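Q: For a teaching session next week I want to show students how multiple molecules come together into a single three-dimensional assembly. I've collected the sequence lines for a complex. Could you give me the predicted structure tokens for the whole thing so I can convert them for display?
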Amino acid sequence: MAVTIRDVARACGVHISTVSRTFSAPHLVNPNTRSRVLACAEQLGYRPNRAARALITGRTYNIGLIVADIANPFFPPLIKAAEAQARKHDHHIFVADTNEDAALEEEVVRALAKQVDGVLLVSPRMSNALIEQLSREVPMVVVNRQVAGIPAVVMDVARGARTAIEHLTALGHHRLALVAGPRGSWTSREIRRSASATARTAGAELTIIGPNPPTEVGGLTVAEDVLRAGATAVLAYNDLMAIGLIEGLLAAGAEVPRDVSVVGIDDIMLSRLTRPKLTTVATPTAAAGRAAVDMLLAHGDDRRTTAHVHLQTELVIRDSTGRGPGPHSPADPGDVNAPGGVAS
Amino acid sequence: MAVTIRDVARACGVHISTVSRTFSAPHLVNPNTRSRVLACAEQLGYRPNRAARALITGRTYNIGLIVADIANPFFPPLIKAAEAQARKHDHHIFVADTNEDAALEEEVVRALAKQVDGVLLVSPRMSNALIEQLSREVPMVVVNRQVAGIPAVVMDVARGARTAIEHLTALGHHRLALVAGPRGSWTSREIRRSASATARTAGAELTIIGPNPPTEVGGLTVAEDVLRAGATAVLAYNDLMAIGLIEGLLAAGAEVPRDVSVVGIDDIMLSRLTRPKLTTVATPTAAAGRAAVDMLLAHGDDRRTTAHVHLQTELVIRDSTGRGPGPHSPADPGDVNAPGGVAS
DNA sequence: GACACGAGTGCAACCGCTTGCATTAATGGG
DNA sequence: CCCATTAATGCAAGCGGTTGCACTCGTGTC
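A: Of course. Below is the structure for the complete assembly, covering every listed component.
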């Protein structure tokens, strides 16, 4: 059916190896022969079969991209950027969605391993140990996780969380809540660690709520916990949860930012469009996608690079955060909106 | 490096063909032998190389999924559903993003053709003729397009557009605008055709604005055109444009729905979360993704099915549409907020 | 004029796997 | 007890390419 290298060879009166070399080692074939072969190939509509080539060379020119949830708006910009970057280097991308399931992650990596040159594991939920093991079966770059000996692209969410907490305490909030992300998320742990430390330094109280599914519903359902904790400001694991949380707070009669300030993380497109517009920590997702692909493709060249790329985050202040009760006032700690006195 | 069928055969003391049959034709091998082979394979961590298998069988167990823009929130739910459905049938998915570029679509289909069992072309921008031609090189299912002789999944946007226009005229609007989508979009043409017919029937005026890029910015930039046309109600090609349009109208001093009613199409997640919440025509994107995969995989069985799957759409009325000036009243046509009667 | 050399091409093995056919052993019927 | 069947396995060709090696020519050198 399809036209093969043999058809071209026959049509052109040369041996198949010459046709092969015309495409994969042009300098080895006489310019005249070469152009003749190219003409035949073009005319027959010949396209090399990559799978067949991969069988010998071991290079598939495919990349696996594994994400927790394609429908989570955090991922599409990353996928898009990765796909564009990959195609720029003539690679194709397999996309797999693991539904936040660690076991599925493993299964998918294994299933893809043989037909890709490498795997991009984005925001993995599986254990570090398993990642290390899998990385021995197939080249791997991890995004949003630090694993010893494995190339990684990480966004500096720790710094982002610190900035966010500082923003909130500077606004006069001292009863804070952190709405954590899913179990197994390195990012969530980082945020938690950093937020806790920052809150402690600032002398603020931080209630941690979670783990939770990193979705709008996940945010919505913890609204009551937030209120019960008496928090006047919340940092959420991601924007989706922050938005859900705002909905939930509203449903419970609390307005944002009047009664509660909310900060998200990611700066997904949505965040600019909801009302109130969401204050959030912007993460460079597209850059991460590109960087991850670049690392994966470079990986082959000089072995054991194991570089880590750190990408900066940035607090984007919009309308979901406002003044808090002010510096610690012993008086009337129940009324979170009381204009507060001074402390330290 | 990797463990092959030969390693298993050697470890197990059988011929490679027996190992092969153990996996791809189990009924041909003795149950005892079979379990021995399986044990060896398991122990060595053997996984069949699909690319090698495909070389002989012609079946790759891969599917190509080509979309115009991964970052457009319309697509992720479709991609997610398609991926899940594909994996249910043990297939993997290549995702490619064409940036709304028809030429790139063609290139990507060709590049993918050899390593997939079929291609899902979602909301294509290329011509019907080209689609027909490409479909002779690789099995294809088209989503959101009708092409003679090619299996398709189409959402009934024509009916959606009609319902939307009827909704608006029933609210008393008679100067309408349609913000069209990108050139090459079948959906946009369908919407236009249906909206025009419906408006004519209802005796309403319909200004068509476009084509436009199907993005938030695309919607934002036509806000002035909408106002200049004197429209009090707008149907947009998709939600993203509707949301951009609302922003643009607001920036120009027109409130939604007080001054202008806006209806979107798609019902992306965003639409529930913006303020005002968007009235929109819900399209079953996830169902479309699943259906398309099913058609592609069934396609092989009984040739020339060329079935077309039609999926229904549904108007979801939220807060971006409100009463219009009412039945054609020569009096005070300037005050779009006059409490209007209802016609018919 | 013999020789070394490099450029260009052909030859054939092989990548990991499937599959039609041959071979062998076990089974049942007459 | 022999033969035809059937079940189970081995054999080897081949899928569409790549690549080390051998071969054939000019060409330049001494």
